[in-house]
Structure prediction request, 829 residues.
Amino acid sequence: MMALRRHPLPAGQELFVNAAGRFFLASQAARKRIDSSALLETDRDFLQLQGHVLEPGDTLGHLARGYAEARRAVVSPQLDYLILVPTLRCDLSCSYCQVSRVAATQPGYDWSEDTVEAVLRLLDMLATPQIKIEFQGGEPTLRPDLLRRVIARCARFEQREFVICTNLQRLDDEIIALLDHPDVFISTSLDGGPDVHARNRTGSAAATVRFFGNLAAVVARYGPKKIAALPTIDPAALPDIDALIESHARHGFESIFLRPINFQGFARKRHRAVREQDDDWRAYYERFVRRLIARNWQDRSRVLEEAYLSIALRRIFRPGTERHVDLRSPNPLGIDYIVIDHDGVVYPTDEARMLARAGVIDLAIGTVAGGWDSPARDVLNQHSSNSDDPACQRCAFQPFCGRDLVDDIARYGRIDLPRHDTAFCRRHMHLFGFVFQLLYDEDEAVRYSLARWLRLPGAMAPTLDYLA
Amino acid sequence: MIPLRLRGRAEATAPYVVRLSTARDVAPGPGAARLVTEDDEGVAFSSANGLLAIDGVCAAMLDGDVVLVDPQRQWVERLLRAGSQHNTLVVTERCDQLCVMCSQPPKKTHVDRFALLEEACLLAAPDLLIGISGGEPTLFKEELLAMVERVLGVRPDLSFHILSNAQHFTEQDIPRLAAPAFRRVSWGIPIYAATAGLHDAIVVKDGAFTALQKGLAALLVAGARVELRTVVVKDNLAALPELARFVAVRLQFVEAWSLMQLEHVGFAKGRWDNLFADHRAAFAPLAEAIDYAILHGVRAQLFNFPRCTVPAAYRSLARASISDWKRKFPNRCAPCREQAQCGGFFAWHPDDQASQMVQPL
Prediction:
C-alpha cells in the first residue's frame, strides 16, 4: 500500500489522499481496519482499483501513478499570458486600490514609445499559438490607442483573449469599438448595490450612476458572458449575502468571486485589519456558498457559483485544466506569465508590482526591453513549489493546493514561516476542508450544485469513492 | 446504404489502385483515372492501367474516389470515398480474439494488400483522416507501422485512426511509436471490464486483459493517442462504474472513452437476445460510469446510441457515430428535430426493433 495523507472529517470519518491527489473517504470502521492492518478482501480490492495498492510487476499501475503525479506538476514552459499596465493613471480612487494609482491628469505614468515598441516586439517573438492578455491599470481605457496597437499585433495568434479591467467610467464610441471585438472581454468591480459601490469605489453619486448605467449598457449589448464582475469584500463590514448575490444575479452574472480585500497597495494603509482572514470571514464564506446552494436548488433555471470554490473543485478532479495562477504548485514565477508595468518593468505577479509600488520590497525581475531571465527570478523559483515544504508534504490537500511566495512576502516579509502560520495555508486548509465536507454531503441540494459546478451531465450522488 | 463494392471490368490483369476523376483536364499519371464515357449502362475510366468499366453508376457519384480494382474478381472497391469522413481500410481479416459481439468475425486467411493500401493513402484527398481496421491490424505490426511511417513521411497532412486490441505492443515498439509522425495516429482500443475474468470472457481469449494492460503501458510511455472503446453488453453493463474507476485511475492519459451500443451484425446478430443490454430500461450504470469519468477529466462519449433513447442530460454525449454509408433512420424518425446530430441505426438493424426504440424529439 502506498503512502496516504489523512484529513479528519465529521463523524469519525477520515479522508485519505495520495500524492497524485486520488482520494477516498473511510468510515470510522474502515479507518480502524486500515490503522490496525486488518484489511478485508473487499478493502484490498477497493484500494487496488483506486491505485492505492500497487502489486510488483504492475507496469501500467506504476506508470499511471507517475503520470497522475506528473500531470499535477506540469506548468506550461511557454509565456502565453501577459498582464499589461499601459498606464497607472486612473479617474477613480477606490479605498482599497490595489496599486498606488496616480491621478488621471498626471504625466509620466504611461508607456513610453520605447516601451510600446518593446511590448510589440515581445509579442512578435512568442512561440505560442494562443495568447491571453489582461489590460490592468490604472485605468486602461484612458489609453485606447495602446490597447488597439497591442490587439492588432496579436492577429497572428490562433487563439486570442483580451481582458480589459475597467472601472466602466467611460463608454464612448471609441471604447465601444474596442469592446465590440469578439476576443475582448470586460472585467470590472461590482461590490454590491449603489450605496456600497459608492462607498468603496466611485466616491461620488455621479460616478456611481455612470458606472451602473455603463454596466447595464455593456450587459445589454454583449450579454453577461462577456463580462466578469468581481466584488471586493471588506471583512470588517460584511455585506448582506442575499443582497450581494442579487446585485450580481440581477445582471445575469452567475459566477461570483468572493474576494476579501487584498492586503496590498493602499489597502495596507487603510485596511490594516485585513492582514489575516479570521473565523468570521470563514463562517461568512461558508454561509455564502450554502446560500448559493439553496438558491440553485430552488431556482433550477440558473446555476450560481463562487468562482474560487469552482477553481478548487477543478484542482481536485481535473489537474492540468485549470490555469488560475493564484492556486497552483509548482508556481514558477516569470515563466508562463508576467506583468509589464507602466514603466516597462517586469514583475512576476500583479501583487509583486503592488509591493514594489508600496515600497515594501522590490520584486522586479527585469524589463520588457532588457529581459527578465534574471538571478532575481531564479531565487524566487527555488521556492515556488509546495512539494518541498515539510508541512505541505504531510498535508492531505497538498496535491490540490498552491504556493504563493508573494503573498507570504506581502504579509510577513519572509517566506520561511512554518506553513500553518501563514494566512495562505489557513485559508486553503479551510477551503479544502469545506469542499470535501460538501463533496461527501448527502443532501441532494448540495449534490445538485456540485454536479453543476463540475459540469457533470448527471449527478454527484453515486460517484465519489467511499470505503464503508 | 452507400455501396462500397461495385461490379467492374478492367483491362489489366493484376489489382491496382487509382483515383477516379470526371474532370477533363486531369493530369495523366500514375494513379490518375480519367472519365472517358458515361451512359445509361454505366461509366468508363482510363488510366495507365488501361480501361475500367463500372456498371450501374453515374460518374458524379464516384468523382474523387480512390478505388482498388481487382480484375480477377471483377470488383471495384471504394477505399477512400471523396468527401466522406468515414473511410476504413481493412488490412487483415485475421484476429487473435474472438469477441462475443464481433461485428466482422475474423477469417483464417490473410490477403496481403499493404502495398495497394499504401498507394491508396498516397492518393488521398488533402488532410484526410483514414481509418484502419481488421481483423487485428497489429498481427502484421511491422507491415502496418512501416506503411503508416512511409505514408506520413510523404503526406504529413494525413492522419490515421487504427483499431487494435493492443495485444502486441512491446517495450521495443516504444521509441518507434513515440516518433513525431505518430502524433497523427490515434489508436482505438477495446476494453470491456476492469477485471481479467470478465474482459477475457468477453474477448474469448485467456490472458487478453494482462496483455492489454502491457500494450496500454507501452502506448502510455510512447505518448500515443488512445481512444478506449467499450461495447456495452448484458455481461458488462453492471460493471461499467467499476470500469470507469479503472479508466480514471489507470488510463487517465486517453483522449476519449467511447461507450458503444451493440451492432446488429456478425456474431451479435445470432446472439442478440443474450448480448443486447437495453439502455433505455437500465441507464443507471452508464450514467454513473459517465459521470465518474467526466468528473475525473476523462472525455466519455456514447456511440451508436440514438439520441432519443438517451436521458436528456446525457444526450449531448451521444455522437453521430455510425458511418454515413451504413447509417439509417426508421420512418418514425422523420419528424425528429435532432436527426442531424443523431447517429441513427446501423443499416442492418431490424426495422421493427429500430422503429420500436425511437421517440422523435
About this structure: Chain B has a mean pLDDT of 93. Residues 5-80 of chain B form one domain.
